[in-house]
Amino acid sequence: MSTNIEGKVIVVTGASSGIGESTARHLAELGGVVVLGARRESRLDAIVKDITAKGGKALAVTVDVTKREQVDALIQAALKAYGKIDVLVNNAGVMAIAPFTAMNVDEWEKMIDINIKGVLYGIAAALPVFTKFKSGHFINLSSVAGIKVFAPGGSVYSGTKFAVRAISEGLRMETRKDNIRVTILSPGFVESELKEGTSDAAASRKVREFYKSPCRPDPSPVRLPTQSTSPATLKSMKSSYVLLSRSSKIQTLWHTPGQFCRSLEHFACRRHGTPRPTAPCGNRVIERGTR
To answer: Could you state, in order of their start, the residue ranges of all structural domains in the chain?
Structure first.
């Protein structure tokens, strides 16, 4: 078990359920100090109570990531309680699937506010802290929909996740001089509340059916080495696998739904060696920028 997460202060948004909750619980088990941010105060309190009862260190802060002042308050609460921040996981997100013809403009705005502006507010709150200490790590949640447009229905959602990738890549290039790391995580199928984000009945049914489809028929482990993957290799992969290759290195892992949080361990601990054994299933892309 990793010991170099011990004592690191990790702030996680969208931590009341799904990937955010699982990440906070997992990192706390490894000795990390987790600060959970989300809107549902009672849910956060229950998670923190459970973590502390098991000997972990955790703090709950109610936050709406669409409110810049609340995101600032989240970071300041972590600093006040623990004196530092090592990692910010910008995880909060919403997925409202519906075709453009449905004209769900309110849901378009909601996705932009949470998926894009929420990430930007997190960056704005934590970047001065990381710059001051010449150390820090942003882990931003994108999606496979930020690699290939999911349409019809997911065009706006894909647009927000493409934006997360562009913002993260630019942030990496600008902050490398200050010893700040930036990682993009692009999950595929993960069982969570994310699929409940649309008000369009027809689209909701299709999303539920999509999530029921088998993520990977072969239960044997599959892992690519942490080296650049050639286009020829990508082309030869089965269509059920979604991968990405770019100029920087790529690490691709398959996980069972709900276990994607374990991927963050490799990055939050800031040591990028041989990947830990993980249960294979589904399609996940983890991009790693170079320093």
So the answer is: 9-215
Q: Which residues contact 158 (CB under 8 A, 6 or more apart)?
A: 143, 145, 146, 148, 149, 150, 151
CA distances in angstroms from 74 to 50, 60, 62, 70, 125, listed in the order given: 21, 9, 8, 6, 9
- pLDDT above 80 (res 96): yes
**Domain 9-215: top CATH class:** alpha beta
Instruction: Report the distance separating Cα 161 and Cα 268, nearest Å.
Output: 21
pLDDT digits (tens, 9 = 90+) for 165-205: 999 999 999 999 999 999 999 887 676 656 666 767 676 67
Is the model's pLDDT at 281 over the cut of 60?
A: no
* CB 170, CB 214: distance < 8 Å: no
Nearest to 178 by CA among 126, 134, 129, 138: 134
Is 121 designated active site? no
Single out the catalytic residue among 82, 157, 211, 241.
Answer: 157
Q: What is the mean pLDDT of residues 64-68?
A: 97
Query: Which residues lie across from 38 on neighbouring strands?
Result: 62
Q: How far is CA 125 from CA 88, 189, 257, 291, in A?
A: 10, 30, 31, 22
- pTM exceeds 0.90 for this model: no
Q: DSSP H helical segments within 176-255, as ranges? A: 201-212, 231-236
Largest pairwise CA distance in the chain? 51
CB 145 within 8 A of CB 100: no
Q: In whole angstroms, how large is the CA radius of gyration of the chain?
A: 18
- Angle in degrees, CA 25, 4, 36, rounded to 5: 30
